[in-house]
Each structure stands twice: as structure tokens, then as C-alpha cells.
Amino acid sequence: MMSNLGFPGPDRSHTPGATRTFFRYELRKIAKQFSCRSTAATLASPPATRQNAFRLRFALRESLNVKVASRTLLLLALGVSAAHADAVWTGSIGGTSDFVFRGLSLTRGKPAAQASLDVEFPKEFYVGAFIATADPNPGPSPAVEFDVWAGRYWSLSKDFSADVRLSQYTYPDDPRRVSYNRTELTGTLGWRNKLFAAAIYSPNTKAVASSPGYDEGDVWALELSGRQPFNEKFAISAGVGHYALDEIYDDSYNYWNVTLTATLAPIELQLAYLGASDEAEDHFSDEVTGDRVAFTALWRFSSSR
């Protein structure tokens, strides 16, 4: 969303990972903008290349192979949301020129199609899902990344907010010999919906991005990010993070991004500059690491009940 720093969520390929608390605040505002157009959710896709259109159809088809537990959790959560009159749906569909997560490209510099869905319940509980085409390895490589998450947001005071989220990253039918699937627990503290600090913990991790780890272990990430609107249409966001992979790669690295966002409802455009420190090059290929620029175009949809 937006990657990144790192949270799974809407358009996560270029959104600072610690800004989930800001997204919770924006959800209902976006929904109100769309609800004046129609009482039902509208869904349309921006113009896409034939390659991206094919990859998105393939991605959606591949997502059906996600293990039963993840599918059941998501379907149950969405079913429950239908029973809540105050539930708000927000989602996006589109593409990015480079799917980057924590400074590493999951498409080796190639375009990716992506889609997301987020449902906010009363009392600030939420669930969501994200799917994107992927190609992290030059050899056998998964065609899709599929993520689901659930969490809760708190308004602690006039200035401070907090968010706790449990996420599952999954690569259906992954041909690689090591499992890259992982679970993450994220805690975020926000100040005035502008500055955010996040801590991420992932237990029993075997590998990330495109390289198998040397051992299985626990992984941590720390992120600082901020967002400053210029007006109702334009905003800039930036963030830095530290990915502690010592238990699986005997090393760690830093990552960053700066993203300019234009909101031309229902279209959102993002131009991001992203990168990772030299330590990442010791464990990941040149196609995955290095500073890069990525452009993302999204068509957002929402329904407010």
C-alpha cells in the first residue's frame, strides 16, 4: 500500500508501513466521498496493459488456492460485516510499475497488478485482504502474493492514536523449496495522524523476499514515517525502517521511501522513490535491491451504509 515500508493493506506497494492509523481515519472520509455517487459500491479498473490485465486475472485465479484456513477467516469476517449496518468497505484495484516491500522488489523491477479490500466495523475493528502479482526469483517463483489481516484502532487522546494488527503473508503454490509464508504482529503509535512509529514482530520466519534464510528464527522491524497533505488532492509521505534479519540471514538492513500522492477521486496516483542500504545486497540479487522509482495508479471504490 504505497510499499514500502511494510504493512499489508490497500495498495501497500508504496505506502509507509506505519501509516495504518492514518488510513483508519481516512477510511470513513473516503467512503463519504463515494457514497454521494451511489448507495452501492462502485468498481472499475483504470486502463491497463494487456500484460497486467492477464496477470491480474491469473492472480485472482491463483488466490483460490490459498490454504483453507486463510480463506475461511476472510470469508467469515466479510460475512459478519454484512450483519453490521455501520460497516464501511473500502478497496482499490490497479497496478504499479514495481512492487516494492521494505526496500526489496518482489517483481524484480517489473510491473504488477494489485487489488485490496478493507472492512471497518464499529468500535474500530477491521479486516482486510491484499493480492498482487509477483515474480521475486528468476527461476521457480510464485505468481501471486496474497495477504489477510485483522486489527483494531484506538483514539487515545486528541493527539495520539494506536493500532494493533495481525497479518498473514502467503504465496500460493510457491515452487521454492523454502516457505516464504509468515505471520506478523504490528503495533503502531500515531501523533496527530501525521507522524507514526511502528514495531513489527514475525516469529518462525524462514525467508523473505527472494532469498532463503540460513536458519529459521524471529524477525523484527522498526519503522518511522510521516505524512503531510499540501491540500485535499496532494500529499507527501516519507519513512525509514530497520529490518532485523539477524536470526535468519545473520544480518540486517535499513530501508526508506518518499512518496508523492495525488488523489483525483476515484483515481489515486503515487510516485515513489524507494531504496535499501548496502547490507541488503549481501543476501539479495541486484534485481531486487537498489534505489528505484515506482509509479502506481489505483481506482478506489467504497460503500458507506
Structural write-up:
- The structure is a single chain.
- This protein has 305 residues and is of the alpha+beta class.
- It has a single domain, classed as monomeric porin ompg (Porin).
- Helices cover 16% and strands 48% of the residues.
- It has a twelve-stranded antiparallel β-barrel. Strands 2-3 form a two-stranded antiparallel ribbon.
- It starts with 19 loop residues before the first helix and ends with a strand.
- About 21% of the residues have low confidence.
Secondary structural class: alpha+beta
Q: Ranges with pLDDT <50 over ≥5 residues?
A: 6-11, 13-25, 27-70
The number of strands is 14
> Would you identify the CATH architecture?
Beta Barrel
The order of strands across the largest sheet is 1-4-5-6-7-8-9-10-11-12-13-14
**Distance between the ends:** 25 Å
Query: Helical content, roughly?
Result: 10-25%
Which CATH class?
A: Mainly Beta
Order of helices and strands: HHHEEEEEEEEEEEHEEE
CATH topology: Porin
Largest sheet: 12 strands, antiparallel, barrel
Hey, roughly how much beta strand do the residues contain? Answer: over 45%
Overall mean pLDDT score?
Answer: 81
CATH superfamily name? Answer: monomeric porin ompg
What global shape is seen?
A: globular
Q: Number of DSSP helices?
A: 4
Whole-number tally of structural domains: 1
> What is the alpha-carbon Rg in Å?
18 Å
